[in-house]
Design goal:
Shape: extended
Helix content: 40-55%
Low-confidence stretches: none
Biased composition (Pro residues): 20-29
Largest sheet: none
Strand content: under 5%
Mean pLDDT: 81
Oligomer: single chain
Transmembrane segments: 90-108
Region (Disordered): 1-29
Pfam families: PLAC8
Number of strands: 0
Radius of gyration: 30 Å
Keywords: Membrane, Transmembrane, Transmembrane helix
Distance between the termini: 88 Å
Number of helices: 7
């Protein structure tokens, strides 16, 4: 057998040293900047409690006796004008009338609102709130939108115009392509 210090020796008495692994490759570039939010800005609590619905008795009564109105107003703001108050209110009413479970429909809008504004909570809690106390949940969502500067009873477009300080954006007229006469080289 070879000498212990002989590099050509086949006897490996000394333990071999492992080479360090190369660093992992960087993540693929997607074109979308990824910025981690600081923990303090991750999620915020609701601006009012669920049981604060009695501070606005008028809205509380509307939400109790005719929840389709409050829901329609909330949904138009949450959808940013993509759906109308009247349509969503009518869908809510039909689901309530046919199944008695319109809370299943309004629960999805609470989820959407929480994700949009990064509000604390979870889906199970949202579902239970809408099943057990629909009017309080709707009134809380309505107040949350009010505290964020919206007036849900005005609808999305009126709120957008107010937030632009009354400056309405004029629609751009369609531009026709310019066609030259005859053939040219």
């Amino acid at each position: 057998m070879g000498a212990p210090n002989d590099p050509h020796s086949t006897d490996k008495a000394a333990p071999s040293q492992k080479e360090p692994l190369p660093p992992p490759p960087p993540p693929p570039v997607t074109g979308v900047p990824v910025v981690a939010l600081p923990p303090s800005l991750d999620h915020v609590p609701w601006s009012t409690d669920l049981c604060d619905c009695f501070s606005d008795l008028e809205r509380c009564c509307i939400s109790f006796w005719c929840p389709c109105v409050t829901f329609g107003q909330i949904s138009e703001i949450v959808d940013r004008g993509a759906s109308s108050c009247g349509l969503n209110g009518a869908i809510y009413f039909l689901i309530a009338w046919l199944t008695g479970c319109a809370c299943c429909y309004s629960f999805f809008y609470r989820l959407k609102m929480r994700k949009q504004y990064r509000i604390d909570g979870n889906a199970a809690e949202d579902f239970l709130l809408h099943c057990l106390c629909e009017s309080c949940a709707l009134t809380q969502e309505y107040r949350e939108l009010q505290n964020r500067g919206f007036n849900p009873s005005l609808g999305w477009f009126e709120n957008a115009e107010r937030q632009n300080n009354g400056v309405a954006m004029a629609p751009m007229p369609p531009v026709a392509p310019v066609v030259e006469d005859g053939m040219k080289r």
